[in-house]
Amino acid sequence: MGANMFAGPFSEARVWAFEKPAMYAGLPAGYISHSTGGDDTPQPLNLHGWNAGSWPSSGPHYILTSRNFNGQTFQLYSWDDPFGADTFTSLTTLNVQAAHGVSSGYPVDNVQQGGPTITGSDYRPQDFEYRNGSGWMAGTVSCNPGSGTVNCIQFARTDLASQSVAEAGVYAGNGEYRYFGDLAANICGEALVGYTKSSSSLYPGVYAAGPAIGGAGIQTPPESTIHAGTASYYTWANRWGDYSGMTIDPDGLTFWYLGEFSRTISNGATNWSTWIGSLTTASCGGGDLPPSVNIVNPADGSVVSGGVTIQIDATDNEDPTGSLTVEWKVDGGAWQAASYNGATGYYEDAWDTTTVGDGSHTINTRASDSFPHSSTAANNVTVDNLPLPHDERQRPGRLPQRRQPWPLERPCRHLCRRQYAKPGSERHRLRQLEQRNNRLRQLRHRHQRRLHDH
């Protein structure tokens, strides 16, 4: 485990080794720790995809740190036999910028559609992933693809045997901001990188690109949309989720990515959301991408009542139009099938909102393709089925309208009698009905008193 240590300002970075057998057994576990000094953000090498059988059987553990905090140079450490000989060694400095040749700088704030800029954070590497004798890393830097400075994804593969940068690259596009990238590699040695992307015409969404192949100069990535953003981001002092994770399944083929996107949330507390998607590459695992799914109606944050047509937009790069399995449910209820409507292009089903209580509810949907991959989406809505006042019940040719109930209008009754009680008006009919009911109550009260007197 690695961590930056602060005593007010940054003081040092450290790594720890723990006794896993004792931890697995629920026993007190010993640990060993070393300092990397000013080399910050230590990332121990992660081993994933165990079922693929490509893990090393011996040798030291490797650790990558940021050196000089410039986004260009990184320090490689090794740690051998922590609970025995305990050999901790600073091996070499890796110059990633020299490998790809792109002039890079400190991340700038990220432009988004319709909202303020989003904090760009810093250079720190998000991860260090092992595959087939190599260590992969990715992070955010600023660069200029041609029309101005934007944020870009920098990635590199280190050959652990030679302790040198084997390949490196930069993904960027004019006017597009890519940030908080992370990557992993499959059993075939192909890496995919996931990140957030936004621009002046694009809400912050979740994207992935690859296979990542190093090369000189800026590259335009072969990119897939995992989940598009649907709203401007405006909370948490415009700090974005600096938590981004790409990993490989135990099968060594399927990539799993956790990223952040923005959407409208009815409670208004924040509109920063997390999305998890799976991917494979065409040459190693099938190349089938998960479907894209989004609830079109009812819209996120809307107020609904009565009967509602659920409309779900679900598409897939490989499967034919209308062939996906699309389901939906309200809150924790049972999944219900939605059918494809060729006229609208949406998967649809009917929802009777009176089957749930008034208040906030979450509509969940999931779409599955033939791979099978699946994707999910959710909208928050407010159900409001309060009965209308008597004089506002819907009649043919008239839309229902809500007014304040009569007791709230009482202060105005005498001053506004002519306006509210115009002969022939609905209010006049209601006033007559109220007067008749008052007379009936008076007669009933008199009758009860006579019975009491006798």
List the keywords:
454 residues; mainly beta; Immunoglobulin-like; 2 domains; 4 helices; 27 strands
Please give the CATH architecture of the largest domain: 6 Propeller
Rg value: 31 Å
**What percent of residues adopt helix (DSSP H or I)?**
under 10%
This entry's quaternary arrangement is single chain
CATH class of the largest domain: Mainly Beta
- Please tell me the overall pLDDT: 85
Q: What structural class should be given to the helix and strand makeup? A: mainly beta
At CATH level 3, the topology of the largest domain is Neuraminidase
Low-confidence region ranges: 402-420
Count the beta strands.
27
Percent of sequence in beta strands: 35-45%
The main sheet orders its strands as 20-22-25-24-23-26-27-21
Describe the structure.
- The protein is mainly beta and 454 residues long.
- It has 4 helices and 27 strands.
- It has helices at residues 20-24, 96-100, 417-420, 426-453; strands at 2-6, 10-18, 31-37, 40-44, 61-66, 73-80, 87-95, 129-131, 134-143, 150-159, 164-171, 177-185, 191-199, 202-209, 218-219, 223-227, 245-248, 255-262, 272-279, 292-297, 303-304, 307-315, 325-330, 336-341, 346-352, 359-368, 374-383.
- It has an 8-stranded mixed sheet with strand order 20-22-25-24-23-26-27-21, with no helix packed on it. Strands 8-9-10-11-15 form a 5-stranded mixed sheet. Strands 4-5-6-7 form a 4-stranded antiparallel sheet.
- Strand 24 (336-341) and strand 25 form a beta hairpin.
- The termini are far apart.
